[in-house]
Fold:
Amino acid sequence: MPEMPEAADESDHPCAGAVPLSDAHVLLGEGDPDAVARITRALRAHGAASVHAVDSPAAFLRAGTDPPFLVPRWDAAVWHTGLGGDESDLTGFLDRWRLQRSSAPVVVTDDAPSTRLALAALRGRAADLVERGDAPGLVLALGRALADRSDPLGVEGSGQTSPSMLVVGAHPDDVEIGVGGIIHRRAQAGWDVTILTMSGGEGGGDPVRRREEAHRAAEVLGARLLMEDLPDGSIADDRATVRAVERAVALASPDVVLVHSESDTHQDHRAVHRATLVACRTASRLGCYQSPSTTTAYRPNRFVELSEADVVAKLAAIGAHGSQASTRWYLDEDLLRSTVRYWGRFSQTLYAEPLELVHDKMPLGHHRSDHV
Ligand SMILES: [Zn+2]
Structure:
């Protein structure tokens, strides 16, 4: 159990700043009005934006799906076992919660938590199990669960300046297809995001039009676009390519770099991957994204959660490449959506984009979580 000091009244607990529930909306499954009042007071005092109480399993599950389905309504939930089901049923109940919705972590409370219950909670992937009367413990468990949810590349909150990310692609539309959702998500969170496209994509159509499309797409995602002029179809992993990436690095000073994977059948993609690895040898983090041409050797080990808004922005950015839409099988909207939905299963979220993290030199404690 957490090393929380004793406090007479949890509403002005001395650790108020240490485990902020930073504007979280919390769903509370709890039947006892006194407990509801006490828990609500404690969560609000630690920064929760709202606490919505329900008093039955059905209402809890219903609230989880309550409209609109695709937009997360709750950041976290608290479920009191006394509201229904035996211990073995808890696993099934939590499974149902997650199936119906939700990436929102659930902290389970019980009057006297047993080992059997802890096991059931574990199997149901509860974020934590806390004794019902232990409000400080509940606050701490929720704070931890919310921090764990922050995405695996999360360096936000690490310093005074906003984090910076450089995303490198060989051709216009490569980065949108690979990580359009992550770019949007980071840009929305205040990151400074730069896209570097190494060629004008003249092999796929009129280069002037493709440049305009690339700028529109970057605008949709909230990123700055740099375009180099290497030859589409014959980009080499030579000095010129390395220098092009180095110029972008000098401009963007990225904390995180994303690029094509080595496991890719397109030689331009592989060349850009290698050149970026060399140019970004000092970057804190470097991850590789998926392309339509990545092979089955692509082994992602990070999955970044996307919201519906991120997915919509990704599709809009890809849609901005209008000259490609009718000729490229992989730009089919249904396929793009299914792909982010598919990767979501690896992070128990609705949508995700995958990354192969190839190096990670982030100093310990610099980022909030790295749980995937
Ligand atoms: Zn490409």
Q: What stands out?
A: The first helix runs from residue 33 to 45. The chain has a mean pLDDT of 83. The first strand starts at residue 25 and ends at 29.
